[in-house]
Design goal:
Helices cover about 50% and strands about 25% of the residues. By secondary structure, the protein is an alpha+beta fold. Strands 1-2-3 form a three-stranded antiparallel β-sheet, with helices on one face.
């Protein structure tokens, strides 16, 4: 009798552990794609479109069916770049929806006058 009750419970616990592993893997894929997109988009004379293309390429290569319903948003202003990737991890346990959302922000690379940098560092500016 105990075996009849314990076996499905143990199987469900095992599936939940596997589901967590799949979600963590999908989260890491999204993080890697967001970081790569950020580095591309923040480069000197780059664009948000270049970062978006880089993220989508990496997601296509590494994401496969692990990360589905994915969206990529890259916003570049004069000083910052923000990359947001959302999606859903593959389902192992029926009915469990594991959302994935990663957002990273970084400064845009730009040329700064050298004399201004020294005066700011020295506390003169």
């Amino acid at each position: 009798m105990e075996l009849v009750i314990a076996t499905p419970v143990l199987a469900l616990l095992l599936l939940l552990v596997v589901q967590f592993g799949v979600w963590a893997h999908a989260q890491h894929i999204a993080q890697a794609a967001a970081n790569q997109a950020l580095q591309t988009a923040r480069a000197y004379r780059s664009s948000a479109a270049a970062g978006d293309a880089q993220a989508r390429e990496l997601l296509d290569q590494a994401g496969g069916s692990i990360l589905s319903d994915r969206t990529v948003s890259v916003t570049r202003t004069a000083t910052t770049v923000t990359v947001t990737i959302t999606g859903r991890a593959a389902t192992v346990v029926p009915g469990v929806r594991a959302p994935v959302r990663v957002s990273v922000t970084g400064p845009v690379e730009r040329v700064v006058a050298l004399d201004r940098v020294y005066s700011t560092v020295d506390g003169l500016g």
